[in-house]
Amino acid sequence: MWLSQALNAILLPVLLILVLRIANDPRIMKEWVNSRFQNAFTWALTGAIGLATLALMLSPLLR
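Structure (tokenized):
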């Protein structure tokens, strides 16, 4: 179970980036594309999640 949660944490930023790219594609979303605020908020959250994942992955090496 621990390994599956670690894999989820590693894949989450990658999947968020892919979803954000789809949400910003006007060919797919038409008039429902994200606003600038939604993009800034989502990129900030993705960055924070990515940093938290990196910190959790590196923490055993720093002991």
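Helices lie at 2-23, 26-29, 36-58. The radius of gyration is 15 Å.
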